[in-house]
Amino acid sequence: MINAELKVGDLSLRLANLRVSNGLALGAEIDGRLVNITRAGNALSLPVPADMDDLIQNRRAADVRVVVDQLNARGSADSFAVPETTFAPLVTRPQKIICVGFNYRAHAAETGTEIPKAPPLFSKFVNALNHHDGAVELPTAVDREFDYETELVIVFGQKCKNVSEEDALSVVAGYCVGNDVSARGLQNITSQFMAGKMSDGFAPLGPWLVTRDLVQDPNNLSLQTRLNGEIRQDSNTREMIFDCRKIISYVTSITTIEAGDIVFTGTPPGVIWGQKVPREERQWLKAGDRVVSSIEGLGELAVDFR
């Protein structure tokens, strides 16, 4: 008997949000194949989430477990495998996209920023959501100093408020790779960062949501950024100033978090902004560049710039 209170974080799956001909669908990796779970559930006449947001926001983990178990029992997962995958943004309808700034000491140092006493928070909006193998149209009419920031992203699995550090990871649905694309001129022209963070496509996520139970310790994951094949960032999430537990506890002490909300946890050193050359000599992101962000166990997120 399936537990109706099964949580997304306990599914032991790598999940994806897929773009299909009639909209979105939920995907899951089964035996190394990406399977369209939404299509499989419909074919088997089983209730199934329409996409990732439906799964998380409407607590439909039990429905996914039934479909996956049926596919495994029947040996029919191949019938619903996705041969050529087009990923959608990992989530498309979060209520909140929260970002943490300067959360690695070496990143704060490279930008000449004082070590923060609490997690510095700013926000992005739904228009910024982007996907694996997506494109970012650079807003060159308003800035030229474009930068990457590979980050671990927390995806919340339930509504919560005032969560203790001890219980913090229990409210997580899973983790994914994110790139906090930034326009540094807009970011630094005032004391408020948001103008440099909110452009269309500036929040790529994915390709996988790796459920919480598959990530033994989110604060011990190696992280890399490659720009046109060259390693630019090479660090580990254990170098965070405020670890995932502290971030979750702090954010939920300020505001109520809803299922499907996401938090970018900050980037390590190696960004273009931190280069020790005059700003006018830095090689900022430009049309034709490709950035690949990778985090141990979570996969690779690739983005092209135009």
From TrEMBL:
Keyword Lyase recorded: no
Lyase in keyword set: no
UniProt xrefs under InterPro entries: FAH, Fumarylacetoacetase-like_C, Fumarylacetoacetase_C_sf
Keyword vocabulary terms for this entry: Metal-binding
Source superkingdom: Bacteria
Family in the record: Belongs to the FAH family.
Annotated PANTHER family: FUMARYLACETOACETATE HYDROLASE DOMAIN-CONTAINING PROTEIN 2A, FUMARYLACETOACETATE HYDROLASE DOMAIN-CONTAINING PROTEIN 2A-RELATED
Protein's recorded name: Fumarylacetoacetase-like C-terminal domain-containing protein
Organism lineage string: Bacteria, Pseudomonadati, Pseudomonadota, Betaproteobacteria, Burkholderiales
